[in-house]
Write a structure and sequence with these properties.
The complex is a heterodimer of chains A (about 230) and B (about 280).
Chain A (H helix, E strand, L loop, with lengths): L3 H13 L3 H34 L5 H11 L4 H12 L14 H26 L3 H8 L4 H11 L1 H16 L3 H7 L9 H11 L2 H32 L1
Chain B lengths: L1 H17 L8 E7 H5 L2 H13 L2 E7 L1 H9 L5 E4 L2 H9 L3 E16 L13 H10 L4 E3 L5 H13 L8 E3 L4 H11 L3 E4 H7 L6 E4 L6 E9 L9 H12 L1 H9 L1 E2 L2 E2 L2 E2 L3 H5 L4
Parallel strand pairs in B: 1-2, 1-3, 5-6
Antiparallel strand pairs in B: 3-9, 4-7, 4-8, 4-9, 4-12, 10-11
Helix pairs in contact in B: 6-7
The chains are: A mainly alpha (about 230), B alpha/beta (about 280).
Chain lengths: ~230, ~280
């Protein structure tokens, strides 16, 4: 078995040499997770807005539910989706199991509660008079909402980055509904699991480094946004 | 800051569109065992098939039990597995059709080099397992209802041992992973020879027992029954089965070697088996 340092050195070589299979896997990871977050963000933030600025029965319950769902294990989402999407399941005719679309759906489900809950606290922290002022100044409801969203944009970006951070690194749903098919549904986490089981540690480490770098970059962005956020509140 | 946010958004959009898959070639979805994937055999076979037919093969490498379940649910078009009793049941129940024998190898019992249970002296495979149980030596089981796991359970039954207790570890993982676990735990495990040869150089273990007829390991290919799922890719499945059992596929199986050793012996065309080294 090769040593950690040997494997790490070979991992660097793999990354730098532009290994097509490796970069293909990285591309799939980003493509799936970015699509998921792009689809999930608008409805989630709209819902968060509704939860802040309207009063209806069950509103608090709904908030608690989303807060709870933030912690739902990815494998549970994966299992539920698997049963729904399997050819012998209720949505089997869509033929979505083991496709990227299934992975995107799973990641939407995973990121949605984070976007709602964190989006909600960002908007709730904004000055509540802003909304009414905008309305009295003659802005339409949509215009007033956009003004508010712009006011709390850094808080919203933090929510989006947190949601993205969760889904880019998750393996539970990707493995179950994606199936780890090479060139199609093999993303960074499922590839790491496979390469480790094959004893191909260099590949695994190379992919792990990409995830680590990404986590670092996301955290840097988060702290930058948080600095912008702080004086506003 | 605003510029950064815009750049981020643009990045998001560009990469988001990147993901749309190029449609075109028909796709065959195959569920197979971890042994065909981990041993590297599929990498030697599938590109040749795709080149010949234009059919792209998407592989789900799982245990035999799960592979058959995927076929039963219509989630794949074809299965390539190794558990003849379960395969026959699969066909008898109407889940699959056109079952063909493809190739075989054999199972080996690998374990620590010093063979603490003394299974090298066992008279057959069941006796070897009985010795491991009697010595309470650590044994790592696949524990995943795979073909190898099914074989292992039949051998325990034959040995008259109900495995359990601290020495018996069910890993629930693929063959390669289990060889690694057994290596780390200084334990025995049952492996197909193909995966073992592919992992031999990375493992501290040795073959401690081999050669019993009970360790015979045949692989079969089955098309999922199109009467149950009319929209599965039945024609591609039949094309794959035909190719795999024809001279081209069978010869590629014989030719696939690691360190000069053949991993699988073709069965559909028996004369190819002996003319393998050319």
């Amino acid at each position: 078995m090769e040593s950690l340092s040997d494997a790490s050195r070979r991992a660097f070589e793999l990354l730098l040499s532009g290994n097509a299979e490796l970069w293909g896997i990285i591309g799939i990871s980003f493509s799936v997770s970015l699509r998921a977050i792009a689809i999930a963000t608008p409805p989630a933030l709209l819902l968060a807005f509704v939860l802040v600025y309207t009063r209806f029965p069950g509103r608090r319950l709904m908030l608690s539910v989303f807060n709870t769902l933030m912690a739902v294990p990815a494998v549970v989402v994966g299992l539920s989706l698997y049963l729904l999407l399997s050819r012998s399941g209720p949505l089997g005719d869509l033929r979505l199991l083991f496709t990227q679309t299934a992975m995107v759906i799973g990641q939407i489900v995973l990121s949605f509660p984070i976007l709602v809950a964190m989006g909600h606290s960002a908007m709730a922290a904004a000055d509540q008079r802003l909304w009414e002022t905008a309305l009295t100044l003659g802005a339409g409801r949509t215009r007033a909402m956009l003004t508010l969203l712009h006011e709390v944009r850094y808080g919203l970006l933090i929510a989006i980055l947190a949601g993205f951070g969760r889904i880019i690194a998750e393996i539970g749903t990707s493995m179950m509904v994606g199936g780890n098919i090479l060139h199609h549904t093999r993303n960074i986490p499922t590839a790491i699991a496979l390469e480790t089981s094959k004893g191909a540690f260099a590949q695994g480490i190379a992919l792990g480094m990409v995830l680590l770098l990404l986590a670092f970059a996301l955290n840097m962005l988060l702290s930058v946004f948080q600095q912008h956020e702080a004086p506003a509140t | 800051m605003r510029r950064l946010a815009h750049a981020l958004l643009l990045f998001l959009l560009v990469l988001g569109y990147n993901g749309s898959q190029a449609a075109g070639n028909p796709v065959l979805r195959m569920a197979t065992t971890t042994s065909t994937e981990n041993s590297g055999l599929l990498k030697a076979l599938l590109p040749a098939f795709t080149q010949r037919t234009g059919i792209e093969v998407q592989v789900l490498a799982v245990g035999t039990g799960q592979a058959l379940r995927l076929g039963q649910n219509g989630d794949v078009d074809v299965v390539l597995v190794h558990a003849p009793p379960a395969e026959k049941k699969f066909v008898a129940a109407g889940y699959g059709i056109n079952r063909r024998a493809v190739m075989y190898n054999d199972f080996v019992i690998v374990g620590p080099a010093d063979d603490p249970a003394g299974i090298a002296k066992a008279k057959d495979a069941a006796d070897a397992l009985a010795r491991i149980a009697a010595g309470r030596q650590t044994f790592v089981s696949r524990g995943d209802d795979s073909g190898t796991h099914k074989k292992e359970r039949r051998l325990w039954k034959k040995a008259g041992v109900q495995p359990g207790g601290d020495w018996y570890r069910e890993a629930g993982q693929g063959m390669g992973k289990v060889i690694q676990i057994a290596g780390e735990l200084h334990a025995y495990t049952l492996s197909d020879r193909g995966t073992w040869i592919a992992y031999r150089d990375k493992s501290p273990l040795h073959i401690d027992f081999q050669g019993d007829a009970a360790l015979y390991n045949p692989y079969g290919v089955i098309a999922v029954n199109p009467e149950r799922f009319p929209d599965i890719n039945y024609f591609a499945a039949m094309e794959f089965i035909a190719w795999l059992t024809a001279p081209e596929g069978q010869r590629l199986i014989t030719d696939y070697q690691i360190a000069g050793q053949t991993l699988f012996t073709p069965m559909a065309i028996k004369t190819l088996a002996s003319s393998g080294h050319h």
